[in-house]
Structure formats: C-alpha cells, structure tokens
Design a protein that fits this description.
Layout: E1 5-8, H1 12-25, E2 31-34, H2 37-45, E3 60-63, H3 72-81, E4 90-94, H4 99-107, E5 112-115, H5 120-137, E6 154-155
Parallel strand pairs: 1-2, 1-3, 2-6, 3-4, 4-5
Helix pairs in contact: 1-5, 2-3
Length: about 160
C-alpha cells in the first residue's frame, strides 16, 4: 500500500483546487487533509485524534505557510528536528513569494518551495507535477514501497 500524502491547507478554495489536481494525477497515494499546523503535527506524531492511525510516515507533506494555531515554518521546524519525522519530504505550497519566507523555509530544510500560481491552469499543473514527483517518481527510503498509478482517495479528519 502506498504511503499517503499529508496536505496541510487552511483555505477551503485552495484545498478544493489541490484535491482536484491530485485526482487528475492518477497517483495511488491517499490524501490526508488537515486544516492547521497543530493537526499536522498530531497526525505525524500519532497523537490525539490520530493516536490510532497506522504507523508510518506520509510519502510527502504539502505544507501551507500561513496556517492557524501553528504556522507552516514552525511545523517544518518541528518535522525536521524530530528523528522519526525528519526524512519526510516537505514541500512548502504557499501563496507567499517573499524572499524572507523562501530563505527561512530552506534554512529549516524544506525539500521544495512552490508559490501557488494565481492562474487556475498553472495551479493545477504545479500540484500535479509536485505529486507525481513526490508520490510516484521520488525514490522512497529503504524498506518503503513505491506507488502505483490510480486515482487517490481523500481522507479527512472527523
């Protein structure tokens, strides 16, 4: 079974667009969605609502920068500081093209920084390419399984 993609996005409009783009990629990874940084860390650490989830890390975290409760850069910092999580690829998927945000994300060891295009077609293309690479083409760490292509299902918290 392919590892899921963790999508951390608080904007309902952006979430819908990203999920549509993911559905068009035909990747096998399920998509787990959370709406803030606190939920993202709880999912990754298998705490609270996510205490009963199966062990294992997601294939990739698609992480918005501006999030409620705990911001994206703080989530990134926590992921990369945790020995059990630091190998997870983290892609910042944000509307911020500020040099300070970009620099800080890479200082904190983001694997990629993608500015959400304002053009709908470009936005869908960017998300599709991201997820094809990280979900299907990126070589996973030893012991994990490679994805097969099929439409993803979406898992949202209760």
């Amino acid at each position: 079974m392919p590892k899921p993609i963790l999508l951390v996005e608080d904007s309902p409009d952006d979430l819908e667009l990203i999920l549509r783009a993911l559905a068009m990629t035909c990747i096998a990874n399920d998509v787990v969605t959370v709406g803030d940084g606190e939920q993202a860390l709880a999912y990754l650490r298998r705490e609270g609502t996510y205490a009963g989830r199966l062990p294992g890390n997601p294939a990739v975290v698609l992480l918005d920068l501006k999030l409620p409760k705990i911001g994206g850069l703080e989530v990134l910092k926590s992921i990369k500081a945790d020995p059990d999580l630091k190998s997870i690829p983290v892609v910042m998927l944000t509307s911020s093209n500020g040099q300070e945000d970009l620099t800080r994300a890479y200082q904190l060891k983001a694997n990629a920084y993608v500015v959400k295009p304002t053009d709908l077609t470009e936005f869908v293309r960017a998300v599709r390419e991201l997820c094809l690479f990280w979900g299907a083409f990126n070589e996973p760490p030893p012991g994990s399984r490679r994805s097969h292509l099929r439409p993803p299902s979406v898992i949202q918290p209760a």
